[in-house]
């Protein structure tokens, strides 16, 4: 059985850390290799971002990383305000 190469998921979590975002949900699965087609990672991430941050930047970086790693991915960015953060809501 094919397994996700070491540190593949860590590449995604490091990307969000570099953009100062919190990962609220991460779901991944591997599509096994079939005939001549290589195995492929499918990843879905929901991230929390400060309201002042531009979600387009992380979305572009996420898509670029998916392309680099031959992964299929989807991202959902939820912005939160400083007021929510002060109230303990992230």
From TrEMBL:
Coiled coil: none annotated. PANTHER family: GLYCINE CLEAVAGE SYSTEM TRANSCRIPTIONAL REPRESSOR (PTHR34875:SF5), UPF0237 PROTEIN MJ1558 (PTHR34875). This is Glycine cleavage system transcriptional repressor.
């Amino acid at each position: 059985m094919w397994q996700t190469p070491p540190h593949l998921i860590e590449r995604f979590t490091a990307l969000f850390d570099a953009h100062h975002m919190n990962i609220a949900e991460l779901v991944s699965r591997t599509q096994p290799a079939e005939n001549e087609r290589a195995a492929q990672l499918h990843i879905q991430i929901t991230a929390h971002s400060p309201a002042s941050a531009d979600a387009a930047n992380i979305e572009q970086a996420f898509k670029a990383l998916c392309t680099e790693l031959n992964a299929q991915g989807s991202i959902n960015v939820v912005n939160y305000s400083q007021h929510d953060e002060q109230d303990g809501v992230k």
